[in-house]
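To illustrate the input format used throughout this study, we show a single complete record. The first block contains the structure-token representation of the backbone; no residue identities are included at this stage. The design step must infer an amino acid for every position from geometry alone.
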């Protein structure tokens, strides 16, 4: 165990001399999977999740065999599996999952009673946050001037500005009999 501890310090020192301390919650990974190769080019910074997934994919011995996964899926869908999950839900999760607690809305800052994962006090604030994030934004071409503009994909806007909207409106009115 002492050897592993000293070894960890060796490649950690190599990284720290070049990049500074390893950020908390990050792992150093040997790209060539050789723990004896502590060269800087061979070290890579990964999140714990990425590091575990990478080693799982690279080492078939630690990967779950397909037969086990199939059997687990079958058991979880069986009456026994469903009743086991139902019992554990009632014994351990039900109260804590549905308990309302005092929260503060991330958009307007108001206090509200919500579930543990709640972020917003209302659908209005949730929609405002979604619009602000730009997750639904798309690029369109203005029908009047031909320039690209960004708009929420659920809006029917066809022009980039009020000026272009006025021009498009007058063209549409003139073309109608």
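Output of the design step:
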């Amino acid at each position: 165990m002492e050897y592993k501890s000293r070894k960890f310090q060796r490649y950690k020192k190599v990284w720290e001399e070049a990049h500074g301390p390893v950020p908390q919650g990050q792992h150093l990974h040997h790209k060539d999977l050789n723990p004896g190769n502590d060269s800087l080019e061979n070290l890579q910074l990964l999140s714990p999740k990425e590091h575990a997934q990478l080693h799982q994919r690279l080492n078939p011995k630690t990967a779950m065999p397909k037969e086990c996964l199939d059997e687990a899926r079958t058991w979880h869908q069986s009456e026994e599996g469903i009743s086991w999950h139902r019992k554990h839900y009632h014994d351990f999760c039900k109260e804590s999952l549905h308990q309302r607690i005092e929260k503060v809305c991330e958009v307007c800052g108001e206090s509200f009673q919500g579930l543990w994962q709640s972020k917003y006090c209302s659908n209005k604030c949730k929609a405002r946050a979604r619009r602000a994030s730009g997750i639904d934004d798309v690029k369109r071409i203005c029908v009047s001037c031909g320039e690209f503009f960004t708009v929420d994909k659920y809006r029917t806007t066809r022009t980039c500005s009020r000026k272009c909207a006025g021009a498009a409106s007058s063209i549409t009115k003139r073309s109608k009999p």
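Structural context for interpreting the output: Residues 137-175 form one domain. The longest strand covers residues 137-141.
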